[in-house]
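User: I'm preparing a small set of examples for a lab meeting where we compare how different chains pack in three dimensions. I only have the primary sequence for this one, and I'd like the structure in token form so I can line it up with the others. Please keep the answer compact; I'll paste it straight into my notes.
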Amino acid sequence: MKLVMQDARASRAFANAFECWGNPPLGGSPGTFNADYPVPLGTCGTIDIGLTTGETLAQSLANVDLLVIELGTNDEYTPIGNLGDATNAGTYYGNMRWVVETYLAAKPTLRLAMVTLQWSTNTTPNFIQQYANATVAYANSMGIPVLNMFTKGGVNSITAPSLLRSDLVHPNDFSFSNFYGPTIAQFLQSIF
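Assistant: Understood. Below is the structure token output for the 192-residue chain.
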């Protein structure tokens, strides 16, 4: 696999997935990419790879065969809602649906894979597991391969201090190199 595009930043929620494409409201259509759009920790141009100002989402996806969607950690206080919620409902299910349907509308031949949030200590594990389960349920309903990092990421109450950054949410460098990254790589190799 070769990385040709990356649109990622820390603290992003599903509701902000297209902030660099005009920051449309939930359920809205993205505009064009703006590298100068300010986001936490810089601008869209400082955090993204392979994206050009003025391109539509479809143009940005032209050379992308597989897109991995890994969001959810920053959505933990968004109401979960129900499978089938409208794309502008403001629920976790609705927000996932908006993101997936927007990518597929921009490029119907795009292969998608989803990765759930992992275990962390910022809220109770049962609460986090509900969001991971919702991601799995939505992905399964759409026929999208999904990796449940809550159950397969290797993080739990004993390993968290060694595998997570000081925020006890995000994988540290060791964890990413030895657990998180390899688990996702094996998942992608097994499905594609």
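A couple of notes for your slides: Residues 173-191 form the longest helix (19 residues). The radius of gyration is 16 Å.

User: Perfect, thanks.
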